[in-house]
Design goal:
With 360 residues, the protein is an alpha+beta fold. It has 3 domains: 7-115, Butyryl-Coa Dehydrogenase, subunit A, domain 1, CATH 1.10.540.10; 120-208, Butyryl-CoA Dehydrogenase, subunit A, domain 2 (Beta Barrel), CATH 2.40.110.10; 211-355, Butyryl-CoA Dehydrogenase, subunit A, domain 3 (Up-down Bundle), CATH 1.20.140. 56% of the residues lie in helices and 14% in strands. It has 12 helices and 10 strands. The strands form 3 sheets. The protein has a 4-stranded mixed sheet with strand order 1-4-5-8. A 4-stranded antiparallel sheet has the order 2-3-7-6. The longest helix has 36 residues, at 210-245.
């Protein structure tokens, strides 16, 4: 029995990494982070050419028809490159349409999503992670009213999948009257969060309710964990490379036992996470009865491990670790946002305990 990735999966991930090395270099990411008006259109266009928007969309609609594990491997590569692209919505929105959309809705939107003609965002934070600051969306008479916070890619999305306070799902055209969008100030400048306001916005209901919302939550947890895994890989690589070249007292600092231990501890903490994330991605399609719990484990554990790795990698770099020239802060802040999106580790662990009947 083979528990490793297939050759095709490895080749696809490596190919995406090469594409990102050209389209989303650190200099390009830095330029994006410094310009709020920059939407990263050139980076997204390169990923459209790669076929990334159609990764989980069935072939009959022009997509690749792949699994969530394949999408997680792509998210891992995007995390390594701190790529400023709306990938979360590009996966969750097609999943929502596949699970709960009518045949007409699927035929109208899935081909456009697969081709990259349309981008999508998913506003489910309040329904999954709990409402804050008066946020929450209510539905009445086919209209949505309220506010949704922390919507990745929501500023420019052409299509929105929105959850109301009861867990029902709705499809909203990005051009709908009464829809307002504002950028939210956050630590991660590679993934801009949107605050969406709904003032009697026309919406089409999706079927499935809480069941669909739970599946989107699980998929989101896996993708965020995979993105974090890729970011942590880079932070360790950068720390090791720096330790091999930085000299102190006439020796490279990597020769000091204390620095060796820091690097070894980071690697030891991260390596078990790889199989955890991969299995969570696999279980989503192949073992759905295990999906919610494995996704929760992956999201919560990576959230804690990434904080340790971000801090330790910065310590290995010393003062250089916090400079913009090095750019380590892009990965540091990326894992910080992923830790809290769709629920922080404390909330996710509490939900995992409920799934297992350990708490009421």
């Amino acid at each position: 029995m083979d528990f490793s990735l297939t050759d095709d999966q490895r080749m696809m991930q490596e190919s995406l990494s090469r594409t990102l090395a050209e389209a989303s270099s650190l200099d390009r990411v830095r330029a994006f982070a410094g310009d709020p008006a920059d939407r990263g259109a050139d980076i997204w266009a390169a990923l459209v050419d790669f076929g990334l928007p159609g990764i989980v969309i069935p072939e009959e609609y022009g997509g690749l028809g792949l699994t969530l594990l394949d999408a997680a491997l792509m998210a891992e590569a995007l995390g390594r490159a701190v790529a400023p692209v709306p990938f979360l919505g590009a996966v969750l929105a097609p999943l929502a349409l596949r699970l709960a959309g009518s045949s007409e809705q699927q035929a109208r939107w899935l081909p456009k999503l697969a081709s990259g003609e349309v981008t999508a965002a998913v506003a489910i934070s309040e329904a999954v992670a709990g409402a804050r600051d008066g946020a929450g969306v209510t539905a009445s008479g086919g209209k949505l009213t309220g506010k949704a916070l922390f919507v990745p890619g929501g500023l420019g999305a052409d299509l929105l999948i929105v959850a109301d306070t009861g867990g029902a799902m709705y499809l909203v055209d990005g051009r709908a009257s009464g829809l307002g969008r504002e950028i939210m100030t956050g630590i991660d400048l590679t993934r801009r969060m949107a605050e969406l306001t709904f003032d009697g916005v026309a919406a089409e209901p999706l079927t499935g309710g809480q069941g669909v919302l739970a599946r989107l939550r699980d998929a989101g947890w896996v993708l965020l964990a995979a993105d974090t895994l890729g970011a942590c890989d880079v932070m360790i690589e950068k720390a090791v490379a720096y330790a091999k070249e930085r000299k102190q007292f006439g020796r490279v600092i990597g020769s000091f036992q204390a620095v060796k231990h820091l690097c070894a501890e980071m690697a030891a903490e991260l390596e078990p996470c790889r199989s955890l994330v991969w299995y969570a991605g696999y279980a989503f399609d192949a073992a759905p009865e295990e999906s919610a719990l494995t996704a929760a484990h992956a999201k919560a554990h990576l959230s804690e491990v990434s904080r340790f790795i971000a801090r330790t990698s910065t310590e290995v770099h010393g003062g250089m670790g916090i400079t913009d020239l090095l750019g380590l802060h892009f990965w540091f802040k990326r894992v910080g946002l992923s830790r809290q999106l769709l629920g922080g580790p404390e909330r996710v662990r509490a939900l995992a305990a409920q799934m297992q009947g350990l708490t009421a």
